[in-house]
Sequence to fold (282 residues):
Amino acid sequence: MRLACDLPDVVGRSLSQWDCTELAQQLQHDGVVDRISPQTVQRLLAGCRLKPWRSHLWLHPRTPRDAAFAQTVREIADLYSRPLSSTDLVLCLDEMTSIQPRHRLAPTRPAQPGQPVQLEHEYVRGGALQLFAAFDTRSGEVYAGQFRRKRQVECLRLLDHLNHLIPAAITTIHIICDNVSVHHGAAVRAWVAAHPRFVFHFLPVHCSWMNQVEQWFSILRRKRLRTANFDHLADLAAKIAQFIDQWNATAHPFRWTASSFDKVLAQAEAALPPDTPLLVAA
Fold:
């Protein structure tokens, strides 16, 4: 049990993590036992609920999970869950970067009985697009712009697009986004000052999972981009625009039931020291 609870480097083994075979060999090498099988090691570990061959990612916070953090999380949770007046709108904004057309050297073959879709392995790169998108948390509608670069200039073009499309009757547009300079640079701050109905709410560091547009990006990636085969950038842009149009035709919001809000708030309110590891759920 002690050996399984140490990293292999501690005993001079060049392994990333233990498995039952390696543990059995190490026990015999160290003279702990004359002979032991991997199956016996597995049964012993199971008795203590030890699985050293598994790993989970965790994130060490760069900023304290304090009262200010808790207040920000509560504010975002409130924007997601409270009933909105007819003059309010909550949008989640972010970017999907470096989307490549990846033109395949042979056409993709559709599925046949007993055979999956066949995708040519080799492809030719043809540039990349940056997709700026804003997700309406109440209707599920997506507003988007596709550009060659990711700068404040492109962010402002999307904001102008939103300002033009969203009726003037909506007097408060809440924008939830992360803290990258594209969202809060000098040019963007000047634009927001000139358009007071836009109110920005910045997510805490390492909390991109709280941004609902990321969930929509995962749908786009899985349903349209996973087996990418586009002739060129214009073809890629047209297919993404088509996907967005078809999504908006039957758009739906996400039912936000993540328990992660409760977890991070509990840790923040417990006044943990800044160097305490914070588990992050997605």
